[in-house]
Amino acid sequence: MPVTLGRDPGLAPAAAQALAWAARDRPPGSFLLADPLGTVTHLVGWLRSKVTGILRGGDFTGAVLLVAPPADPEADAELFKVARLVWQYLPVRWVEVALAGDESALAEGVDRCLRLGADEVVVVPASLVPPPACPPGGRDAGPLLGPAALAALIAERATQAERRWERDGDDGLRMKPHHGHGHTLGRTPEPTTETPEGTLTHG
């Protein structure tokens, strides 16, 4: 299962390529590739739900800071697009982004929000990676998805993959390469595991 929330569209094709290589001498159905854990649409919905929960506490005049580890330029740019979509139609003035792999990067993001005029900054993870420790002026909103919700989502994706195989004989491994990845002709491609956002789970 590609453990991605949509910022890395190349992860699922890379997973299919790697599993196809591993399955080349095995019976059909030995490996099934589930759909990615989430898409950008899912991510926007989960983040909007998280922000809506923050706003239920009363008048909120602060900023929401979406935090994720830095990846490649396209994936990083996608997070800014996500922030814009999360902000749309919500009664919050600022939805900002911090590409934070360490505490200093997160502190810079919080400081930026305070300089914009926010009286508090709520740090919301935009990935499954817990953000660095919250600096002064920031408040940790907790994980994007709780353990129970995450476990249920993984189980749902696995069940969907099994049903697709049983119904259609589709193992999910014949996915076309994503634009930007190398193409090979006439031979089985070497497995690729470059994952700027997530990881590959084989099973």
Automatic annotation (TrEMBL):
<dbReference type="InterPro" id="IPR002762">
    <property type="entry name" value="CbiX-like"/>
</dbReference>
<feature type="compositionally biased region" description="Basic and acidic residues">
    <location>
        <begin position="161"/>
        <end position="174"/>
    </location>
</feature>
<keyword id="KW-0479">Metal-binding</keyword>
<keyword id="KW-0456">Lyase</keyword>
<dbReference type="GO" id="GO:0046872">
    <property type="term" value="F:metal ion binding"/>
</dbReference>
<feature type="region of interest" description="Disordered">
    <location>
        <begin position="161"/>
        <end position="203"/>
    </location>
</feature>
<dbReference type="Pfam" id="PF01903">
    <property type="entry name" value="CbiX"/>
</dbReference>
<protein>
    <submittedName>
        <fullName>Uncharacterized protein</fullName>
    </submittedName>
</protein>
<feature type="compositionally biased region" description="Basic residues">
    <location>
        <begin position="175"/>
        <end position="184"/>
    </location>
</feature>
<dbReference type="GO" id="GO:0016829">
    <property type="term" value="F:lyase activity"/>
</dbReference>
<feature type="compositionally biased region" description="Low complexity">
    <location>
        <begin position="185"/>
        <end position="203"/>
    </location>
</feature>
